[in-house]
Automatic annotation (TrEMBL):
CDD domains: ABC_6TM_TmrB_like. GO terms for molecular function: ABC-type oligopeptide transporter activity; ATP binding; ATP hydrolysis activity. It comes from Pseudogracilibacillus auburnensis. It is found in: Cell membrane. This is ATP-binding cassette subfamily B protein. Residues 21-304 form the ABC transmembrane type-1 domain. One of its GO terms (cellular component) is plasma membrane. SMART domains: AAA.
């Protein structure tokens, strides 16, 4: 149960001053809270023996008032310090998770669904933060405060009465331990189910157009209803165990009260304790209710926190398939990219998706990459971005092996426009500035002209300040592609990769973009993959991929003279045009 505190020891060690102060202040506040019951018993005994004077009464009232003020100030300090720590932990864990996500490769995101990652980044982090705040509070109250009350009851009133009233405690410890184990198991299942439901919601929202197009609204609603029912059942299973804590505690506390009142009255009759002592004892017994409840809450919170921390740590322990080398080689200038006997296969597959014997790309070259669907064009680009491991052979950038380069430097050289454009739920200006932080409107309009987007921006209601919506839902396919192109152009990278990124624009727009591209990137390297061969006819060198291998290569004219797949495909597309 207390494993979770050990797993969070790194945080408590870093903020030991904060937690030392908070726990010390909490103990002092608890100790001060034990004084008023003694004052009450003291006053009752003076009343009973008719020895209460005005001076004694005023003194008691002044002490009582002072205690209230001091207790309030100290309680504020420990509350602010302790729960402030839990907020810091949540912030730290969320930052660690986000940094971890940004380092992960596609293999990781193929293994873990978005909804599940969101559940771990929200609900699980809340449970962990609760452990570092409320969990520490209940730990102190269930141990130190409880023993302080018991000590006051035993040393200042009667040990016999104290032990008798605490007989239900061992029973409570056994029952709470069983409840805690059940909570841990059921809460883990409930969180897993919540992650699956999150993922279903995300997929439904993203695919709402397809759902409507195929009239699948009822079926999707039914699937979601089944998932929510599953989440409901699993959370109800947690709630059923959770609901047992309070009544169990009330029964045991009631038993303690019964013993305390019955046996205490007997001791008063025997003059073993005074009436004031009995009243004080019952007040202490009432104060003991919270520490007893705190035992149950402690088990509940720690088990939930432990389950959530295990789920989050499982993500944080996942090592990225691709990492920067320990001692990277720094390259000042990118003058060429060379492939020599390079093969590549995706993880968990045995066949090679890429098998290139030789390919040379010089600085300033424009390389066209064409081939049938599934020929390996996108895979080739993912190799250059080093998104996957298992690259065999010699793939070099300026004679330096790709695995010796720092990932940040490699990806800084490259501007990438993928097949599926990613639009952020921000304005068009912010989406383009993603390529160059702080880019001016003048620079943005210039790259929009290169991407042939100026006419479109004039028609949008707020121009550059138009929000594109979730995943660019307010833009057409062609508009999204051109915003993505503008974002890549403004970065002005050493290597620009266009992965079939003009498929949604018409031929005339494509021709204009290509013309701008040729003019702007005279001394920069550009790689263009396309199904429409008109996008690569201007390239310095064109390669035709078939099953990951180069089946044809040369300039447009050379490939036309060769009379292979390229010529056949080009002529067919010209006829269709």
């Amino acid at each position: 149960m207390f494993d979770v505190l050990g797993k969070l020891s790194w945080f408590f060690k870093h903020y030991w001053k904060r937690y030392t102060f908070a726990i010390t202040a909490l103990i002092i506040a608890s100790a001060i809270g034990l004084i008023p019951p003694k004052l009450l018993g003291y006053t009752i005994d003076h009343i009973r023996f008719e020895t209460l004077t005005t001076k004694i009464l005023i003194t008691v009232i002044i002490i009582y008032g002072s205690i209230i003020i001091i207790h309030y100030i100290i309680s504020f300090l420990w509350d602010y310090t302790l729960f402030g720590g839990s907020i810091i932990l949540e912030k730290w864990m969320r930052s660690r998770l986000m940094q971890h996500f940004l380092k992960m490769t596609p293999t990781f995101f193929g293994k873990y669904k978005t909804g599940d990652l969101m559940a771990r980044s929200t609900n699980d982090l809340k449970a962990i933060a609760l452990t570092a705040g409320f969990g520490i509070l209940t730990l102190v109250d269930a141990t130190t405060f409880m023993f302080m009350i018991i000590a006051m009851m035993g040393f200042t009133i009667s040990w016999k009465l104290t032990f008798a009233a605490l007989i239900p405690l061992p029973i409570m410890a056994i029952i709470m331990n069983k409840y805690g184990a059940a909570i841990h198991h059921r809460f883990t299942k409930a969180q897993d189910a919540f992650g699956e439901m999150n993922n279903e919601v995300l997929e439904s929202i993203r695919g709402v157009r397809v759902i409507r197009a195929f009239v699948q609204e009822r079926q999707d609603a039914k699937r979601f209803s089944d998932m929510t029912e599953d989440v409901y059942e699993k959370n109800m299973a947690v709630a059923r165990v959770d609901a047992l804590f309070e009544p169990t505690m009330k029964i045991l506390v009631g038993a303690s009260y019964t013993i305390g009142l019955g046996f205490g009255a007997l001791l008063v009759f025997r003059n073993a304790i005074t009436l004031g002592d009995l009243v004080t004892f019952n007040v202490y017994l009432g104060m003991l209710i919270w520490p007893m409840f705190a035992v149950g809450e402690l088990i509940n919170v720690l088990q939930r926190g432990n389950a959530s921390l295990d789920r989050v740590n499982k993500i944080l322990r996942y090592q990225a398939d691709v990492q920067s080398p320990k001692y990277p080689v720094h390259v000042n200038d990118l003058h060429d990219i060379q492939f020599q006997h390079v093969t590549f296969s995706y993880p968990f597959t045995t066949e090679n998706q890429i098998d290139i014997n030789r390919l040379s790309i010089q600085k300033g070259d424009t390389i066209g990459i064409v081939g049938k669907t599934g020929a390996g064009k996108t895979t080739l680009f993912k190799m250059l971005l080093r998104e996957y491991p298992n690259i065999k052979g010699k793939l070099t950038f300026s004679t330096t092996d790709i695995e010796q380069l720092e990932l940040d430097q490699l990806r800084h050289w490259i501007g990438y426009v993928p097949q599926d454009q990613v639009m952020f739920s921000k304005t068009i200006r912010e989406n383009i500035q993603f390529g160059k932080d702080g880019a001016t409107d003048e620079e943005i309009y210039r790259v929009m002209e290169l991407a042939h987007f100026l006419d479109d921006i004039k028609q949008l209601p707020k121009g550059l300040d138009t929000k594109v919506g979730e995943s660019g839902v307010t833009l057409s396919g062609g508009q999204k592609q051109r915003v993505a192109l503008a974002r890549a152009f403004i970065k002005n990278p050493e290597v620009l990769i266009l992965d079939d990124s003009m498929s949604a624009v018409d031929g005339k727009t494509e021709a204009n973009i290509i013309a701008h591209l040729r003019e702007e990137r005279k001394n920069k390297t550009t790689l263009i993959a396309a199904h429409r061969l008109s996008a690569v006819t201007h390239a310095d060198h064109i390669i035709v991929l078939e099953d990951g291998k180069i089946s044809e290569e040369g300039t447009h004219q050379e490939l036309m003279e060769l009379g292979g797949w390229y010529k056949e495909q080009y002529e067919q597309q010209q006829l269709e045009t």
